[in-house]
């Protein structure tokens, strides 16, 4: 009887350790997507008119290297605000409104706690909706085996430039 009890106790401890190793991280950040102005971070690279295509037209592919911050505004003296960059692409997928984009990007962290770690985020941005959701499908470093979701809304819009607010819930093993 004692060996069965001991085996059950050991299995329970192992299961608890595995459950404790899995963590949940909630983060909120801002992605600055600038298609125009002096600090362009998003560039159409292909579409009906080649690289001069409009990001708001069906089929246009845009490559991004957007600044990601803790707060929605960027100032030069605010050195702890930038946490990384979102690098990847989005494709305009709506031939009627032009307001839906397949987004695939890597969030590369450059801040102290997560430097060098990444999150892989993908999904359809239905830009006309007030609230959109993306999948967190992986990561590296402190986010190895990451999975979760990011809820996005448009914080601000100025011409072709947008600041997206993302609230993420991430689980890692």
Q: What would the average pLDDT be, to the nearest integer?
A: 87
**Structure summary, number of beta strands:** 9
H/E series: HEEEEEEEEE
How many distinct helices?
A: 1
Give the strand content: over 45%
Low-confidence stretches: 5-21
The proportion of residues forming helix, as a percent range, comes to: 10-25%
Q: What general outline do the C-alpha atoms trace?
A: globular
Q: Which sheet architecture does the biggest sheet show?
A: 8 strands, antiparallel, barrel
CA-based gyration radius = 20 Å
Structural overview:
The protein has 173 residues and is mainly beta. The protein contains one helix and nine strands; from the N terminus they run H-E-E-E-E-E-E-E-E-E. The chain has one helix at residues 2-21, and strands at residues 23-33, 42-46, 61-69, 82-92, 100-109, 118-126, 132-140, 147-158, 161-172. An eight-stranded antiparallel β-barrel has the order 1-3-4-5-6-7-8-9. The longest helix is centred in the N-terminal third of the chain and has 20 residues, at 2-21. It is globular and about 45 Å long. The protein starts with a helix and ends with a strand.
């Amino acid at each position: 009887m004692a060996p069965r009890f001991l085996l059950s106790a050991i299995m329970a401890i192992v299961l608890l350790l595995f459950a404790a190793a899995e963590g949940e991280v909630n983060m909120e950040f801002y992605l600055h997507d600038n298609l125009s102005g002096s600090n362009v971070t998003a560039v159409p690279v292909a579409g009906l008119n080649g690289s001069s295509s409009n990001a708001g037209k069906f089929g246009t592919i845009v490559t991004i290297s957007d600044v990601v911050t803790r707060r929605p505004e960027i100032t030069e003296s605010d050195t702890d605000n930038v946490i990384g960059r979102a690098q990847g692409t989005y494709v305009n997928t709506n031939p009627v409104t032009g307001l839906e984009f397949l987004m695939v990007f890597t969030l590369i962290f450059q801040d102290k706690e997560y430097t060098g770690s990444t999150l892989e985020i993908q999904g359809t941005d239905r830009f006309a909706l007030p609230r959109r959701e993306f999948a967190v499908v992986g990561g590296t470093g402190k986010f190895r085996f990451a999975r979760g979701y990011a809820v996005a809304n448009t914080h601000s819009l100025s011409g072709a430039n947008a600041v997206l607010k993302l609230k993420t819930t991430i689980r890692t093993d």
